[in-house]
Amino acid sequence: MTSFEEVETEETITCLHMTFYHPCQEEKMMFRCLNFCRREQVRADEMAKFGRDSNVCHYNLMDSRVSRIQFSLQFYRKLNSSELGFEIKNMSKKTKLIVDHTELGYLNKIDLPWRCIICFGDYQILAEIQEGESLDYFQTRLHLAEVPVLQERCLPSLQPIPESSISYSLFPSQDKSPTETDENES
């Protein structure tokens, strides 16, 4: 047997991609302590904590309006399943945490959807889970957004689009209502 044949089988690693946005980032530099565009490994039995207290939180937000521990993420394996996921918990007594459209009060927690937006105060974080197999650890990869992540996310149009893709409301001078024609007519 060659040394290649004896090597452990490679496992894929779950990676949590997080894209951060705050409207005052350029002036206040509240993300200056975060390591962007570099994967960081976190042990599965550790809680990933985000907040202002550098003694407790691995992910520090340099803003006096952020709680000492704002929120935490716990990596886990779902019961009777091989599926892995994250649980997000609001650790702030003063600020509600919004995960997509679900509002979390102090110590409330939910499963983190595979793609969602986390909001508190003026902070917006797009979280996306890239699935893996490893049970020993996961990775985080942080990104910095230049525009609000809520703007980047495509929201469905509330107005129906006509089949002809011409909206008659764009042409208010026309008092004619649309008429139905046979597709064979010219």
From TrEMBL:
Every FHA domain range: 49-121
Spans annotated as Disordered: 166-186
Any Pfam family the entry gives: FHA
One GO BP annotation of this record: innate immune response
Main location: cytoplasm
One of the record's GO cellular component terms: cytoplasm
Location of this chain's protein in the cell: Cytoplasm
Keyword Lipid biosynthesis: no
Keyword annotations of the record: Cytoplasm, Immunity, Innate immunity
Compositionally biased spans, kind Polar residues: 166-176
Family classification: Belongs to the TIFA family.
Protein name: TRAF-interacting protein with FHA domain-containing protein A
